[in-house]
Give the backbone structure.
Amino acid sequence: MRIALKKESESMKQTITFNLNGESVQVEIEPHLTLLQVLRDKLELIGTKEGCGRGECGACTVLLDGRAINSCIFPAMEADGRNVTTIEGLTDSRGSLHPIQKAFIEYGAIQCGFCTPGMVLSAKALLDENPKPTEEEIRHGIAGNLCRCTGYLQIVQAIKAASNQ
Amino acid sequence: MKKFEYLKPKTLEEALTLFAQHGRKAKWVAGGTDVFVMIKQKTMAPDVLISLRGIPGLDQIKFNGSLTIGPMVTHRAIEKSEVVRKKFSALADATDFLGSVQIRNVATIGGNICTAAPSADTATPLLVLGAQVKIKSLKEERSFSIEEFFKAPGETILKPGELVQELLIPKLPPHTGSAYHKLQRRLALDLPILGVSVLLSLDKNKVTCSDMLCTTSPISSILHRMEADEIVCKEVKIALGVAAPTPMRAVKAEALLRGKKLSDELLEEVAETAAKEAQPRDTARGEAWYRRDMIRVLVKRMAMKSIERVLQPEETVFPERLW
């Protein structure tokens, strides 16, 4: 049997190419990195947050081909050739906020703001799939995003308001 | 985080050959929602991860009477599948509350059964649905029932270098309904305290008492009406999760009901027997006595939900009755 192990120093960097917020990016990475590490540390997009680091709090939520995922446990190598949307990608070309972000501000759905990028992206994925969700569907849709400030009520109201636009 | 190589084979053969080259230093990765957490927690330390995501065809659900599910099908795809929801309902129930949307978009059914946690949400639905697991290695292809697949907590029948190639659920008899209940402290991102799946095949789906299912009458009075309709339970399967070291079938309880007329007394006895058959433990998530008590309650409720699904397969009752 051929054992093809390499010493750490020889560990081969790999190049991945993906569409990030509408622009193609190419980045050289070590293959063990998570998508979150690549976004924050290599591409310096620090809007995406690291909370628990194990897929339970949703602070690191990004959209992969339009679907919400936890980037803290998603291998960066699997982003190759895909579309990634982070919170930085929600503003339009003139820099104005997405209707969901405006609704979050209007309804006071933000306090410390740490969960907000992930919460907004989960809301976007939900509304893109189901433009008129019931309150129960909203709660089920954002169940993977923990907020320790608001008690969720304002967040649910904001998403409901955004869905009516 | 520990460094490792990440390989992305394009075919099953290439994946199996890579595994053979790297030996025990390699681990398979499907969605990675367990693997990456285990690497971060240092309970797994692979030098090489071999990803199955790029292999075409492993993420398909196909239905032609029987149902084939590729191991790379995500829980989200199962949750959204009309045919699974209608005909293999217990499996759809299991995906509704597994993890979160983010986890379900990535985590796969193959990964769920290969991690082989006693609490795996898809395990007991697959048990009652009679799933077969097709396994492939470089040398051979093998096929096992899902009962044989689970060996111990975290351990399956898979040998190093083997892969789950496909899950197959055979065509179900007519008038069959199934249901799964996940007993949990919160409605997302929680492991079950207990998981209970029931599948029932009845001898008919037209009965005079089906209206009763839309009412808030107690279960016992509904069952009393059913006795008058003489509904025979032709096939029954009951499976319990977190009730033993591996997901288990409650075969003694099943035997009591198979071929018998439905009645309140009989369902009570079946549920009681299932509770006695289980071997739950005291854990931080729940104590053994509580699990046993809830098996008794939930086996009966899931039997009722299965019956409801047979008798009113197309109708939605609102508000949905909480079985």
Summary: The helical segments of chain A are 35-42, 99-106, 116-129, 135-141, 153-163. Chain A is about 30% helix and 15% strand.
